[in-house]
Structures are given as C-alpha cells and as structure tokens.
Design a protein that fits this description.
Elements lengths: L2 H7 L9 H4 L1 H12 L3 E6 L8 E7 L2 E7 L5 E5 L14 E3 L3 E2 L6 E2 L5 E3 L18 E5 L2 E5 L8 H11 L8 E10 L3 H7 L6 H4 L1 H6 L13 H10 L15 E6 L29 E6 L3 E6 L2 E11 L2 E10 L11 H26 L14 H21 L1
Antiparallel strand pairs: 1-10, 2-3, 2-5, 3-4, 6-7, 7-8, 9-10, 11-16, 12-13, 13-14, 14-15, 15-16
Helix pairs in contact: 3-10, 5-10
The structure holds FE2/S2 (inorganic) cluster (FES) and fe (ii) ion.
C-alpha cells in the first residue's frame, strides 16, 4: 500500500502499521507535519542562567541556538550563518558575549542582529543579515520553540500549565542532574509507552509501590476527593486538562500512596520542598505537550523529559532533574538518591520501547488492538494520524 493510502486507511483502535514506525519517508512526514509545525520543548531557563549562556537544539536538519540575551530574556535563532550558511555554534552549550561564525568570522549579537562582517563592501547593509528568528515561548521556566512559519496557538498551554507550575518556581530552580539516552526505537513508541499503565504492573514494581492504581488492580478514586480538597486549600491546581479535539497538551495531579513523600524507592523525600511548597504533599503533577514534552513533578523535585527523533529507528531522550534554587548538594539532596527512581523506572521503559520497535520490524508484525486501559494511546495515535492527514491533504 502506498503511504497516502496507509494514512487514509488507518483503523483507529489498533497500533499503527509497520511503516509508521520504520519507514524513513514517513519519518520525513512526521518531521514536516508535526515536528516542524508544533511546539517543541527545548529545555529550561535554568539551563542558561547567565547572560550569554546558550544551548543548541537539533531537530532533524535544523539546529537552533537558544540564548540568554542582554536583558535576561530568552531568544532563539536558526543556527545557520547569513553569509554562506555555516553552523555558528558547533557545541551543544556554552557562553558567548557574541556569536562568532567559525568560517569567515561574521559576528552576531545575542539578539541575532549582525554586529560585524569583515571586508564587506561599503554598501553592504548589516541590518538585512540578522539570524533568522525562531518562535519561542517560556512557560514558568520551560522553554518551547516552534519551527513553523505560523505555529499553532500556544496560549491554551500557557494558561493551562501556568497555575500547575507556579508553585515549583521553575524559573529559579536548580538543575541537579541531567542524563541522555540514545534509543533504538521510533519516537512514537516512547510517547505511546508513556500514555498507558497497562504495562506498569509487570514492568515497574518500584513505580507501582509509589502510585496507587498504577498496577490497574487498585484505584486512587477513594483518596482523590480528600486529596484534591487538601491541595486546593494549599492553592495547588487540581483541575486536570485532557486532550480534546486537536489540542496537544495535558495535565493531571494524582496522589502518591499514603506515607509516600516523593517519587523515591523508599517513599521518603529526596530534597527540600521546592519553590512555594511547604510540605511533601503535592502528589504527582504530570504534564504532557505533544510531540516531545513530559514532566513528572513531586513536592521536592521536577523530572523533565525531552524526546528528539534522529531517524525512524533512533531517538534521544534527554532527562533533567530540577530541585529548589537553594537546595545544597550533600546537605539537602544526594544526586544518586534524587535520580534513582526515574533511572530505574525510565530504564525499564527504554528497554520496553526498544523491544517494541525490534518486534515491529519483524516480517510478521501486524497492528494489534489497544486495550481499554490504553485509551490515551488511542487518543495520541488518532491525533498523530490526523496531523498526517491534514498535512498531506493540504499539499495534494
Ligand atoms: S559562513 Fe559564516 S562567516 Fe562565512
Ligand atoms: Fe512505563
């Protein structure tokens, strides 16, 4: 079947046909119709705390420079020189008073304007050769960019995420640890994995110990009204956000098991309460923004996940652990203890995602039915297919 027929004939409720996970042509469609159109989580403002701090983020063929400007604002530019196109920043992160192209030494200001171009004629107008800007939004310390000419409306995400995030004071938070995994899988299989807990009972004993209902044998419903009343009384947002129509963000707050203070193997806290939190009773906050953002936050730390596809069969997962701005390593937290819950749980997931991909590559893979508890996976896959249908129909 040709690609367009595969897209048009997809049957909702089943896993996708093989080509969606393995075919590089469909990967290019994913890039064109989703990754170059939607909002991508790039990092956190704590990644670039000082003026001139920058990091680069590569999405398929585009590299973007995200830099802290002279007034402390966050700016984003395409990392391609306006002279002959060289990459300007060749490292993943650094600090630069000006951005210097390594090829012929054109020099750019942090705001992307061209500062100096050697030996150019008198009538050369520098103002015509600033770096191309990239759309950027900062939500409570989370940096999102979009490569689209006119990106989808991001206001609902800002309005939705803002009240949930405010108590964590992420714009002041400290990055305590970072880790990158390179996975042999398709990016959608990671998103699918993180949208269901059908696999949790068998795969994640540690996670199930911390979260009531993760094993699908219990329910948190009995605890929820009381917990929500407690949280509301403390000013914590409790009203979840579900995916509706074409929306691409989601929020939920749910309780940890009684006597669990944090996402940790022993249930005890791993750092001091973060930001405005005064105790260890904020439950778990989960936020998702398609296609590449996920966080889980507890009272004492925030865990962020950024997915970056490299090809149909490979992607990066970049993780950060954030703690309160004033938390001191060795006194308030130990890195090993802070990261161990998500190191254990995440690595269980990465293995499942790689196995899933390897099995899908088989000559005998066939799309199979999603279980009722995988409803959120169905929603994601339907959203994904709709984006390809919308994109490919508009260019036909
Ligand atoms: S390509 Fe950048 S200065 Fe020539
Ligand atoms: Fe999982």
């Amino acid at each position: 079947m040709d690609t367009q027929s595969l897209i048009e004939n997809y049957e909702s409720g089943k896993s996708l046909p093989q080509a969606f996970y393995t075919d590089e042509r469909i990967f290019e469609m994913d890039m064109q119709h989703i990754w170059q159109k939607y909002w991508l989580f790039a990092g956190v403002t704590a990644d670039i705390p000082k003026i001139g701090d920058y990091f680069t983020y590569k999405i398929n063929k585009d590299s973007v420079i995200i830099i802290r400007g002279d007034d402390g604002e966050i700016l984003a530019h395409y990392n391609t020189c306006r002279h002959r196109g060289s990459l300007i920043c060749t490292k993943e992160s650094g600090t630069a008073p000006k951005l210097l192209c390594p090829y012929h030494q054109w020099v750019y200001n942090k705001d992307g304007s061209l500062f100096k171009a050697r030996h150019m004629p008198d009538d050369f107008d520098k103002s015509d050769f600033g770096l191309h800007p990239v759309h950027l939004k900062v939500v409570e310390g989370l940096i999102f960019i979009s490569l689209a000419a006119s990106p989808p409306d991001f206001e609902p995400v800002i309005e939705g995420f803002g009240p949930f995030l405010k108590p964590y004071q992420l714009h002041k938070a400290k990055i305590a640890a970072k880790k990158r995994y390179v996975l042999k899988t398709n990016w959608k299989l990671i998103t699918e994995n993180f949208r269901e807990c059908y696999h949790c009972g068998a795969a994640h004993p540690e996670y199930c110990k911390a979260v009531i209902g993760a094993n699908l044998k219990e329910s948190a419903e009995v605890y929820l009204p009381e917990k929500q009343a407690d949280w509301s009384a403390k000013g914590l947002e409790v009203k979840g956000i579900d995916f509706v129509d074409d929306s691409f963000h989601f929020a939920v707050r749910y309780p940890l098991r009684p006597h669990f203070e944090s996402y940790s193997l022993d249930g005890k806290s791993v750092s001091v309460p973060m930001g405005e939190h005064r105790d260890y009773d904020a439950g778990v906050l989960g936020l998702v923004c398609y296609p590449n953002f996920w966080i889980d936050a507890v009272s004492d730390y925030v865990w962020t996940m950024r997915i970056t596809p490299v090809s149909a069969s490979r992607c990066y997962v970049d993780l950060s652990w954030l703690v309160d701005a004033n938390a001191v390593e060795g006194k308030d937290y130990e890195v090993d203890r802070l990261v161990e819950f998500w190191k254990v749980t995440g690595e269980q997931d990465w293995e499942l995602c790689e196995n899933n991909f390897a099995g899908i590559e088989s000559s005998h893979y066939q799309p199979g039915p999603y279980a009722p508890s995988e409803l959120d996976v169905v929603k994601f896959v339907d959203w994904y297919i709709d984006r390809l249908r919308e994109g490919t129909r508009s260019v036909m």
